Every structure is written in C-alpha cells, then in structure tokens.
Amino acid sequence: MRLVIIGGGILGTAHALAAVGRGHQVVHLERETEARGATVRNFGLVWVSGRSTVELELTLRSRQLWEEIGGKVPGVGFRPAGSITLVRTPEELAVAEAAAASDTAEARGFELLEPERVRALNPALRGEFLAGLYCSADAAVESRQALPALRAYLAATGDYTFQPATEARSITDTASGATVLDDHGRTHEADLVLVCPGAAHTGLTRELVGEIPVRRVRLQMMQTAPLGEPLTTAIADGDSFRYYPGFAGPEVDALEREQSQTAIAAEHKMQLLCVQRLHGGLTIGDTHEYTEPFAFDVDEAPYEHLTSVTEELLGRALPPIVRRWAGVYSQSTDPDAIVTRARSGRHVWVITGPGGRGMTLGPALGAETADLLNL
Q1: What is the pLDDT of residue 335?
Q2: Rounded to the nearest 5°, which phi and psi values hold at 11?
Q3: Among 8, 43, 316, 372, which has the highest number of CB atoms less than 10 A from its own CB?
Q4: What is the reported pLDDT for 260?
Q5: Neighbours of 126 (CB within 10 A)
Q6: Membrane-spanning residues where (predicted)?
Q7: Whole-angstrom Cα distance, residue 309 to residue 311?
C-alpha cells in the first residue's frame, strides 16, 4: 500500500516504522524542518514502572520493540538502564512496599532496595533517603537523536520518503483512496492517510474529525552540563507516585491525605524525573499544567524545587543548568483510551493523545494501529 503519514513526531515516525516493516511505502510529511514538539522535549524514558495494569501488556510490548529497534538502529541510544524511585517519608515507603508486593511486580521488575543496595546499584546517589523502588524494566532513548536515526534507517529501505517543511493543507477522500495537498502545491496519492498531529488539535485536525476527546498539557524541564560521573539508572522521587496510575491504591490515598508535597510542587503538580543523557548531562523535570491559555514564559520556582530535590538525592551540587524549556503534549481525556484514533471518511485516520507516554508507547501504538487496520 501507499501511505501518507502527516506529522513527524514519535507517533508519526512509529507508524511509519510499522508500515515500512510490513512492506508498505510511506511518504512522511512534517511541517517543520525537524519535529520540535513534545517528542524532542521529553526525558526519552521508556517508563514501565508507573503504567496502569490495563496498559502494562502494551507497555511491555513497546519496551521489547524499543530494544529491538536499538539493536538495529544504534543511533536511537537505547539503553536498559532501569530506574530507582527514591522515597523519603514513611507514607512514600508504604507505596513502594505495596508496589513491590503487587501482582505485577515481577513483570515490571520491581524490587525494594535498602539505601546501601541503592548506592551499590547507582553510586551517584549519596544523599538521604529511606529506600529505593528499583524497576529493571525501565529504559531510555535519546529523544533528540532518535527520530533522525529512525528516518535514516527507514530511508535506507527505499520505501520511505521524508518531506520536511511541508504542511498538509487538505485531504480529499474518495472511493479508491485519498489525495493530500501540501503547501508547496504538490499532491500525494495514498491508499491510506494517517494524521499524527501531536498537540495541534485545530486546523486540519479539526476539519477532519471535529472536536475529539483530547486536551493539551504543558510541562517545564531543564538540562545540566555533564555530571562528571555516571548516573547508572534514571531516578524519580516519591511525588511521582501521585501521577502514575500503576501505583494507585490506599497507600497513595494516604500519601495524598498527608499533603507532604511542598507548596510549589503541589501548585505545579510536580514530580522529579531525572535521566542522564549520553553526553553526561542530566535531563530533569517536570511540571503539569492543564488550563489554557498556557503561559508563554517559564516559571523559575519549579526549577528551584527540582534542583533542590535532585541535589538532596545526589548529595552534591548540580552542574550548571545549560538550558530550560517548556513543551506541550496531547492527552486523551477518555479514561478508557490509551490513544485517540478517529476515522475521517474511508481512508483517513487521526491518531493523537498518548499523553506523557508517547515516547514509551510509540512503537507499540504504531504496531497496534497496523494490526487494527490490517496493514
């Protein structure tokens, strides 16, 4: 088949990977010269630990696909580093204990470690904490390198063409297929069109499927200069338990009642996530903002909080912060949907809304769409 995929982020690229892998031809349109949205403004984490039980099978499938991709495309920077969620209060420890004893603990690779074992696994963690919930299934990729590496791999097959700085203006759906008109005046004939617009819910997306059950979420993150030593796993703090459905239960309810978050963390709905990039710097975040219009500037108070927590866990000062940024991602509001797939006519689908799990689930969502559409 001939596919036109609109949107060059992780979701569009993962769908191209699935389609080419099944023998189809793909023309891939991206309105920027490179993807500039949430795909490159994230941690690059393949995060198994906090996914809900309903999502776990799909998440583990995606984790396996990322490992396979990493073997074929070294440029994505895949590494099975695992993660440690560091707990600092009795209430957080109760959540970690429940997670380590849960029915899905083995599948997630959970193990509750005493501080000495935490430091043996990740010697950079010299700070104060009660314990660490280790997740061996968690992994990481290089979010700013992954897409160019994947596109180069796809182009080498001869069945993939990437057209940057190309915006799709209209799609004409007919009985025999669809025609995409771009802003250069070119037309692209297709048997199937997949629109992966990220957080662009207006414009062409709205014309095709109207209002769909998605919202936009804004986050703030930062990156340091090289740490000067390995951070052998990703790390998280106990606030992350509040935001991942995989930890839901009476222990998290008790954690919420305790109101142990700082005022800044509560106001900005914060958690600490931290991962070391291949160049040695740390990517640190993040915040959650749900009410639009979003601010066009970044707030300094969350960065001060993240710096303080990271330094407490590392037991040392952070290297200089070299960049800060904000990003916006698309999140499905249907509680039963991991991603929103909306059909427009006979040969056009809009696919968006994976939320903050787009990098984690991208390969599996692309494969799942291919299965659903019998590609």
Answers
A1: 87
A2: -70, -45
A3: 8
A4: 78
A5: 11
A6: none
A7: 5
Could you identify the residue written with the tokens 């204990």?
97
User: Please, what are the domains in the chain?
Assistant: 1-80+139-213+336-374 (3.50.50.60), 83-136+214-332 (3.30.9.10)
pLDDT computed for residue 48 by the predictor: 97
155 to 72, 138, 370: CA distances (angstroms): 14, 29, 19
| CA neighbor of 268 nearest in space, from 218, 333, 327 | 218
CA–CA distance, 15 with 32 (Å, rounded to integer): 18
Contacts of residue 336, Cβ cutoff 8 Å, sequence gap at least 6: none
| Predicted TM-score of the model (pTM) | 0.96
Q: Which two tokens stand for residue 130?
A: 């009660």
Count of all residues that appear for the chain in the document: 375
Q: Are 162 and 6 in contact (CB under 8 A)?
A: no
Asked if the bond preceding 226 is cis, omega within 30° of 0, the reply is: no
Say which residues have a Cβ less than 8 Å from residue 201's Cβ, sequence separation at least 6: 212, 214, 216, 330, 352
Short-list 39, 291, 231, CA closest to 141: 39
- Torsion, CA 92, CA 95, CA 97, CA 102, rounded to 10: -160
**pLDDT score, position 25:** 98
Element (H, E) at 275: strand 273-276
User: Alpha-carbon dihedral of residues 168, 21, 33, 281, nearest 10 degrees?
Assistant: 140
